Amino acid sequence: MSECVISVIMVNFNHKDDVSRCLKSLYEHLPEGKSEVLVVDNRSTDGAPDLIADQYPDVRLTRWDENRGLAPGLHYLAAQSKGEWLFILDSDTIVQAGCIDAILKFAVANPKLGAVAPRVRDVTGAIQMTARRFPSPLNALFGRQTLLSKIWPGNSITRRFLKSEEQACDEPFSCDWTAFAAVLVRRSALMGVGSIDPKFFVYWVDADFFRRLRKAGWEVWCYPVAEILHVEQNQPKRIRSPLGIRDFHRGALRYFYKHHGWGGLNPLLWIAAVGLWTRTQVQLLTNWRRIRQERQT
């Protein structure tokens, strides 16, 4: 068994203030014992890597010469880390007191557990619904941030997908997958399913990983009494990066191909490809109009 109990792994890109706040909260609440913190910086231009190096010299910092994405960064850090447990953490999170201790204790007590996540709240205190069931085609309409879910938040499809009742309570509950915003993963489980797929960029890498983890027989849990704050900028009517819009839909297609594509023989794969391409163009156009309106005001 490795001497290092827990490895915190994090990928950063142009989140200087966020990553500074995250690391401050992390070091205040890391459990006693053997731990390490590893960060990949994807060629930030806001001074984040220098800040990390200067203010947090214990961090094992890797500076990349280009933005290779979240998934390649996590894949690399998982291979470089030494801990029996890996705590995947977004750079725009704030670790709350007792969170890591609580999920680690819960994980160690459950040998069939492959991963456990805390409950995630935004800075207003609202639950972000990060522990969910696996996505289905219906989630194109009834996903976490789709228009229909916002207009009709109490509908049974969205609530079932987001496990809304369970996330509002304090009892631990099993789920299919959870966002990589904050999750503790057993190293042997991660390596047993081939680690994190670096061919994703940002979106859908977590859903893909947990699909493989669950298929291998590992349990995935949410432990709601442990909490993390997520300063996520993913708000409605925001100006989105065209790269992010394209990556979301490319990631969705890759996920569908890997887990439902039958090696490319599923005829629904081509319908999904056309639908996702169309949705991409609509979102790019909507985004462009918002940019124009902002410039005109």
Question: How would you explain this protein's 3D organization?
Answer:
This protein is an alpha/beta fold and 297 residues long. The protein has 2 domains: 6-230, Spore Coat Polysaccharide Biosynthesis Protein SpsA, Chain A, CATH 3.90.550.10; 242-296. Helix content is 42%, strand content 20%. It is built from 11 helices and 11 strands. The chain has helices at residues 16-29, 48-55, 70-80, 99-108, 147-151, 156-162, 164-168, 187-192, 205-215, 242-260, 267-296; strands at residues 6-12, 35-41, 60-63, 85-89, 93-95, 113-121, 131-132, 173-174, 177-178, 182-186, 219-230. Strands 1, 2, 3, 4, 5, 6, 8, 10 and 11 form a 9-stranded mixed beta sheet that branches. Helix 9 (205-215) packs parallel to helix 10. It is globular.
Supply the key terms:
alpha/beta; Spore Coat Polysaccharide Biosynthesis Protein SpsA, Chain A; 42% helix; globular
Strand share of the residues? 15-25%
- Apparent shape: globular
Indicate the CATH class of the largest domain: Alpha Beta
Helix content bin: 40-55%
Tell me the number of helical segments per DSSP (H or I, 4 or more residues long): 11
Structural class: alpha/beta
Assign the CATH architecture of the largest domain. Alpha-Beta Complex
Oligomer: single chain
What is the average per-residue confidence, as pLDDT, rounded to a whole number?
90
Termini separation comes to 60 Å
Count of DSSP E strands?
A: 11
**How many domain units?**
2
Uncertain residue segments? none
Q: What are the secondary-structure elements, in order, as H or E?
A: EHEHEHEEHEEHHHEEEHHEHH
